[in-house]
Design brief:
It is a single chain. Helix content is about 15%, strand content about 15%. It is built from one helix and three strands, in the order βββα. By secondary structure, the chain is of the alpha+beta class. The chain has one domain. The chain is flat, with a radius of gyration of 12 Å. The N and C termini lie far apart (about 40 Å). The protein binds zinc ion (2 copies). The site of one zinc ion has 8 residues, from loops.
Length: about 60
């Protein structure tokens, strides 16, 4: 079933298109991404999102 996922820190999902409603999320008010996964892992979305981040290196 199609659903909509926030790729921010809240990890929220919704059954209808919209924007993130979690005011403490780093993607608050950003549009949710459409997903059709069956296992609830949203792998296709999280993968795409990871590609935008050029590695999360620790600066310690
Ligand atoms: Zn969110
Ligand atoms: Zn999903």
């Amino acid at each position: 079933m199609k659903h909509y996922v926030c790729t921010g820190t809240c990890g929220g999902t919704a059954e209808t298109p919209g924007t993130c409603q979690a005011s403490d999320c780093n993607r608050y008010d950003q549009p949710l991404k459409e997903c059709e996964c069956q296992d609830g892992l949203h792998a296709q979305i999280l993968e795409n999102d990871a590609n935008h981040q050029e590695g999360s290196r620790s600066t310690e």
